[in-house]
Amino acid sequence: MTSQVVAVAAVERSEVDAELELILSVCVRPVSVAEVASYSGFPLGVLRVLLADLLDQGLVMVHTSDWERRRPDARTLRSVLERIREL
């Protein structure tokens, strides 16, 4: 959710569904996925699928934060949680 999404300006969008056009209008400047969900009214899960479609079509770019690239994997988090429970 901390990733930034921005519409690709130079791409022709003549055959884009209304839902995707709404998302693109929100993404005229870099915004977080959470902001796009809020502005568009789409549930986060639905929005992620629609953003994936837009990304596949080359209509948006996604910039992932350094934090997301470096965050621990699920196995590490589970291990930490187990150790905390042992305390």
From TrEMBL:
What's the source species for this entry? Nocardiopsis metallicus
Q: What is this protein called?
A: DUF742 domain-containing protein
Q: Name one Pfam family in it.
A: DUF742
